[in-house]
């Protein structure tokens, strides 16, 4: 029984490996063009599956985009031209790694800026809290000391 567990684990690990959704009828006959298409497909998001590239998605829309990329490459487009065509057609959301210019620059900067602002607020709060303990008087007046002594005697 114990000797079967590693073998079973290995078999399950091999079965669970991801499979590409690219169908054999989509593959280009030119290996260089197919390699370029696969490279471009890795950077394009499936609009149905969200955080999955179109190479790994079985959705019909992902298949359409894969075919469109291959059509553009066969037509003679460069990689940049093919990506630009896809982005023009489907919007910048189709990119798994969005550009860092224009309106997206705000999104790229917002995270670190919020982190720095939060750190500044936390530092100011801590500095303020430390100062409160130093300025407060801990000495009791004579009346307070007498009253305290009376309370403690009871």
Summarize the structure.
The chain is mainly α. It has helices spanning 4-15, 31-42, 60-74, 79-90, 104-135, 142-153. The chain folds into two domains: 4-94, Helicase, Ruva Protein, domain 3; 104-153.
Describe the structure.
Helix 2 packs across helix 3 and helix 3 packs antiparallel against helix 4. The chain has six helices and no strands. The longest helix is centred in the last third of the chain and has 32 residues. It folds into two domains: 91 residues, Helicase, Ruva Protein, domain 3; 50 residues. The model has no long low-confidence stretch (mean pLDDT 83). With 154 residues, it is mainly α. It is elongated, with a radius of gyration of 32 Å.
Uncertain segments are none
Distance between the termini: 75 Å
Fourth CATH level, the homologous superfamily of the largest domain? Cytochrome C biogenesis protein
Radius of gyration: 32 Å
Kindly estimate the percentage of residues that lie in beta strands according to DSSP: under 5%
């Amino acid at each position: 029984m114990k000797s079967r567990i590693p073998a079973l684990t290995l078999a399950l690990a091999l079965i669970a490996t991801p499979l590409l959704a690219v169908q054999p009828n989509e593959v280009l006959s030119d290996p260089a063009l197919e390699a370029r298409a696969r490279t471009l497909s890795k950077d394009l998001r499936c609009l149905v599956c969200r955080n999955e590239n179109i190479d790994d998605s079985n959705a019909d829309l992902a298949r359409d985009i894969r075919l469109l990329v291959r059509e553009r490459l066969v037509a003679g487009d460069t990689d940049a031209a093919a990506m630009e065509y896809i982005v023009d057609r489907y919007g910048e959301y189709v990119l798994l790694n969005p550009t860092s210019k224009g309106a997206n620059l705000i999104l790229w900067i917002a995270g670190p800026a919020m982190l720095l602002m939060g750190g500044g607020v936390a530092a100011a709060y801590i500095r303020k809290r430390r100062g409160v303990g130093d300025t407060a008087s801990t000495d009791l007046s004579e009346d307070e000391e007498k009253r305290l002594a009376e309370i403690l005697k009871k």
